[in-house]
Amino acid sequence: MNDTISRRAFVQSSALLAAAYASHSVSALAEPRTASGKPSPVHLGLASYTFRNFTRAQMIAFMKQLNVIDLNAKDAKDHLPTNPEEETKAIDDYKAAGIKLHAAGAIYFLKDEDDDIRAKFEYCKRAGIGVIVAGDPTPATLPRVEKFVQEYDIRIAIHNHGPEDKVWPSPLDILKLVKNMDPRIGCCIDVGHTVRAGTDVVEAIHEVGPRLFNMHMKDLTDFKSKESQVAVGQGIMPVREIFEALIATKYKGFVDLEYEVHGDDPMPGVIESFAYMRGVLSGMGYTSNG
After folding, report:
1. How far is CA 242 from the centre of its chain?
2. Do strands 43-47 and 70-73 pair parallel, antiparallel, or not at all (unpaired)?
């Protein structure tokens, strides 16, 4: 997007632009495709890390402005504290606001110890969360983690962290090690880290298939630069193709926006990102539900 276009202009025109991009037709700018009214099979959510510099109350207010009710919560600020009493208060606040918790993380499994792993599963069980986004568990820890997956019936989605991660740079590296484990152990594909690892994110979605349990969405202007993150739609991430792959593989989880830049003032970029993604879904003939 041309830098001279204001954020306000982008937000106002995003659905129209996305319809044009989605159809790859200039004429779509003049005659945007009308959504068919079909509910979107792609479910948009929010990773609470986006608002890591803001309190739970502030984040809830932001989510109401965004018309987003599905949250991937992290123990940042007071979003979802690990202390049981404080966690209960957070859960009550989300329920009162109509916000649904579908995942938690990233949660780090640094110890190959039952008590440490059980505490993390109990944390998610209390919140009624069915997916743990796991940050960098070691391969040696996975057999022990697998036992708790089976006991609690909570899925583990291992988060890839790009070329800096020596164990899990790409979702394909995760798949190699978990493909013969319990089917509730799988991937959280972070699209930004995936492309920086040199992996085609659309192909990765198809490869991971039923072991894809969560998605972290972001955009980059340079697939080799972590620092090139921008609002979704301003970069070169193949958003429509990602959505098409998710639909083709019958993905039932959430696409959670994780906007990691402008931490002290994320809302303009967050608004742009949701507007663009909703516009892409509209251009595909769906009514966005996120």
Report:
1. 12
2. parallel
